[in-house]
Structure formats: structure tokens, C-alpha cells
């Protein structure tokens, strides 16, 4: 058996007496365990929030999105679309026209983001499970239908399927100064509301889907599009397809995957997670100061034992190892308990929902948590570093008692 570890274990687990030093050591271990468990829980909540955001955006946003590098729009031709569709792995290419518009329903009105999509948007099946009222459709024969967010429905008091009152959509034109004809300042079209979706508050309160032809006529975009939304075939390599699109389109276009469409948000979330990890690591460091005091007092209390070990041929290295192992038993023992406790709390939240979101949502009722192995690894590594930092000084102090007179 490793001699320094054997002696350190005897000091900590001594059953003959429980003095003040042992009590401080046990309290130190408990503090480390609590701080470790709290860190695991908080990091898991951030992981859960990130997963929640991804699930929301994957519902609303496409797997790949093509936008112009410069400007808001770009022209689309049949040849251009055929080149894109010819790339291996692409299943559906949806043309999109997106802009702000003013809508009015009976006596209510608001500004929304109108999103004109080609009919194959339905084939992407992105919002199938998010429809809460009406039938998912953009056209039925020659009749156009709008798919509106739940927030828009509440604001305008719309009843889906009511053909008596159409939704009036107004769009302000880009006209030259001095235009006196009011009718040329804006365009107006009516459309029936076919269904209502509920995904997330920001989307629900702002978005209306309409047929592409409706948006073309209203906004006068002709062959211009604001983006192309792509659904890849089942089993296709999205990264490979994205790279092939970039090579085909060149520098004039951006090809964005799900994460890149919200890159700033995910960077911010990861940055917050990093700062939380650093903050809790400092809390762990402060909580571990008790270990420093307990080891220092232990070195004073065991100075006679240390002098005996020196007389038996012990070296400074051996004495330092004893106290480093003592600090490791306290710190890493607490860390082990804390990791198990934090993981267990997260498991309970995942399966039984200990803490609710405290709000009505169409997505989930309880706070999302997600355990990631790397969080456990980083937490354990940080605790090892803290243990070495805290234990080194008491270990040096212990080597000073090499010549204590025996009574």
C-alpha cells in the first residue's frame, strides 16, 4: 500500500477520537460536495436551455438556409434552382420572401413579419406538430390561406376558418418623395386565415406564413427572394451538403446551418455558461479554504508524529505527500459525493419535474436539464487543481517539524 496515502487515511478516518480538526475536515468535505452539486445542476440547466432553444429553432428554421452576402434579396431562376436541387442530399428547396407588413382584422391591427413560402414548404413538415387550430394549408384551389402565430391570433382576435372576415395585409412601397397619390404609397391584399401555430412567443407574436405568389404580388418582388430554405434527405450528411452548396454558390451567398442561423445567441449562451463555471469555481475555492485551515491545524497537531517519521528516515517529499493526500481525501471525497448528488438531482428533474417553469408554454412545463459528461470532467479537473493549490502550503508547513523534542 502507498505509505503516504495510508497515513493520510488514518488521520482522516481515525475512530479513536473526533477532535475539532476532524469536525472541520468533515464540514469542509460537505461544503465541497454542496458546491460541486450546485455547479453540476447549474451547468445542466444551461445545457437544457441550449437544447430547448435548438429544438425550437429546428422546428421553425430550416436545416440549411441560403442568403445573399450583400443586400437583402437576390434573383432566382429555374436554372439556379435546378443547380441547387442537383446536389446530392437535398430533398426540398423552398423559396422565401420575408418582410414587414401591416395587417388588419376587423377593428384590430398590428405590424407583423410576413413570410411568403412556396407550396413545398408544407413538404418540409417543420410545423406540422405545432398547428393548434385549423388545417395546415397555404392554398386550396385558387384560394390563398395564411398560417398565423398564436400571438397574432390573440392580438387580432382571429377565428381560423371564418370566411366572412379576411385578413387585410398592407405593405408600404418604396416610393419617391413628392408622391401625392395615396393609393401608390402602399399595396393591399386580403387573405383568409387557415390555421394557427404555436412554437415560441417571439415567433407566435410576429410571424404569418402566406403563399409565395401572394407575397410576390403584395411586395412586388417578382423573381427576387430573401432566402432559400433547404430540407436535406433522410440520412444525408448535412455538413457535406452545406460544403457543396458553398462551393457551388461562391462568395456571393451564405449557406447557414441551424446553429449558424442563431450563432450570436448560442455564443452568448456558451459565454454565460463559461462565466457561471468560473464563478462557481471561485466559490469552490473559497469553500475549500476550510481545507487549508484544517490541514494547517493537523500539521500542528501531528508535529510529534512527523518528527518520529523523520527519525525513522522519512523525507520532506514523503511528509508533503501525506498532507497532499489528506487534502485530496477531503476535497475529492466531497467532489465525488457532490457529483453523484448533482447528477441525482438532475435525474429527478428530468424524470419527475421537481421545478416547473412557472409559466404556460406550449413547449414544456418543467425546467429543462441535460447532463453532459464533459461538465463532470471539467468540474473534477478544477477540483484537482484547487486541491493542489490549497494543500501545498500546509504540506510545506508540516516539513518544518523535523526536529521536535519528544516528551
Describe this structure in words.
The chain crosses the membrane at residues 20-46, 274-301, 322-350, 370-392. InterPro entries: ABC3_permease_C, Lipoprotein-release_system, MacB_PCD. The chain is 50% helix and 20% strand. It is of the alpha+beta class. It has two domains: 3-58 and 265-398, no CATH class; 63-258, no CATH class. The chain has a six-stranded mixed β-barrel. Helix 10 (289-301) packs antiparallel against helix 12 and helix 10 (289-301) runs parallel beside helix 13. The two termini are 31 Å apart. The model has no long low-confidence stretch (mean pLDDT 83).
List strands and helices in order, with pairings:
Blueprint: H1 3-12, H2 20-60, E1 64-68, E2 74-75, H3 78-85, E3 90-105, E4 108-117, E5 131-134, E6 139-140, E7 143-149, H4 150-156, E8 167-172, E9 186-197, H5 201-204, E10 207-211, H6 212-219, E11 224-225, E12 227-232, H7 238-249, E13 253-257, H8 258-261, H9 263-287, H10 289-301, H11 303-311, H12 316-352, H13 373-398
Parallel strand pairs: 4-10, 7-9
Antiparallel strand pairs: 1-12, 1-13, 2-11, 3-4, 3-8, 3-12, 5-9, 6-7, 7-10, 8-9
Helix pairs in contact: 1-12, 2-9, 2-10, 2-12, 9-13, 10-12, 10-13, 12-13
Amino acid at each position: 500500500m502507498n505509505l503516504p496515502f495510508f497515513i493520510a487515511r488514518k488521520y482522516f478516518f481515525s475512530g479513536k477520537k473526533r477532535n475539532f480538526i476532524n469536525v472541520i475536515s468533515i464540514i469542509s468535505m460537505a461544503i465541497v460536495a454542496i458546491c460541486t452539486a450546485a455547479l453540476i445542476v447549474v451547468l445542466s440547466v444551461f445545457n437544457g436551455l441550449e437544447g430547448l432553444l435548438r429544438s425550437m429553432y429546428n422546428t421553425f428554421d430550416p436545416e440549411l438556409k441560403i442568403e445573399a452576402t450583400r443586400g437583402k434579396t437576390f434573383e432566382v431562376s429555374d436554372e439556379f434552382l435546378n443547380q441547387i436541387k442537383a446536389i446530392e442530399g437535398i430533398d426540398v428547396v423552398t423559396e422565401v420572401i420575408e418582410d414587414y407588413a401591416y395587417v388588419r382584422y376587423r377593428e384590430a391591427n398590428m405590424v407583423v413579419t410576413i413570410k411568403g413560402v412556396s407550396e413545398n414548404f408544407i413538404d418540409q413538415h417543420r410545423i406540422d406538430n405545432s398547428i393548434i387550430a385549423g388545417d395546415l394549408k397555404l392554398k386550396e384551389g385558387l384560394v390563398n390561406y395564411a398560417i398565423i402565430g398564436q400571438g397574432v391570433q390573440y392580438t387580432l382576435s382571429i377565428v381560423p376558418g371564418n370566411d366572412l372576415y379576411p385578413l387585410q395585409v398592407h405593405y408600404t412601397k418604396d416610393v419617391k418623395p413628392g408622391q401625392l397619390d395615396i393609393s401608390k404609397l402602399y399595396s393591399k391584399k386580403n387573405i383568409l386565415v387557415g390555421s394557427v401555430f404555436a412554437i415560441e412567443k417571439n415567433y407566435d407574436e410576429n410571424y404569418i406564413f402566406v403563399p409565395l405568389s401572394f407575397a410576390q404580388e403584395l411586395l412586388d418582388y417578382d423573381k427576387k427572394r430573401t432566402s432559400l430554405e433547404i430540407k436535406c434527405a433522410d440520412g444525408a450528411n448535412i455538413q457535406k451538403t452545406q460544403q457543396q452548396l458553398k462551393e457551388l454558390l461562391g462568395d456571393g451567398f451564405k449557406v447557414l446551418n441551424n446553429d449558424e442561423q442563431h450563432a450570436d445567441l448560442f455564443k452568448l449562451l456558451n459565454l454565460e455558461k463559461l462565466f457561471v463555471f468560473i464563478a462557481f469555481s471561485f466559490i469552490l475555492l473559497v469553500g475549500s479554504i476550510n481545507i487549508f485551515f484544517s490541514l494547517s491545524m493537523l500539521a500542528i497537531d501531528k508535529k510529534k508524529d512527523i518528527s518520529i517519521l523523520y527519525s525513522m528516515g522519512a523525507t520532506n517529499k514523503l511528509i508533503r505527500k501525506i498532507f497532499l493526500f489528506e487534502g485530496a481525501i477531503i476535497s475529492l471525497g466531497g467532489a465525488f459525493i457532490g457529483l453523484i448528488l448533482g447528477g441525482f438531482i438532475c435525474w429527478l428533474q428530468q424524470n419527475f419535474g421537481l421545478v416547473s417553469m412557472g409559466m404556460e408554454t406550449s413547449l414544456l412545463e418543467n425546467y429543462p436539464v441535460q447532463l453532459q459528461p464533459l461538465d463532470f470532467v471539467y468540474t473534477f479537473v478544477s477540483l484537482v487543481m484547487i486541491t493542489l493549490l490549497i494543500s501545498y502550503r500546509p504540506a510545506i508547513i508540516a516539513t518544518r517539524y523535523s526536529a521536535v523534542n519528544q516528551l
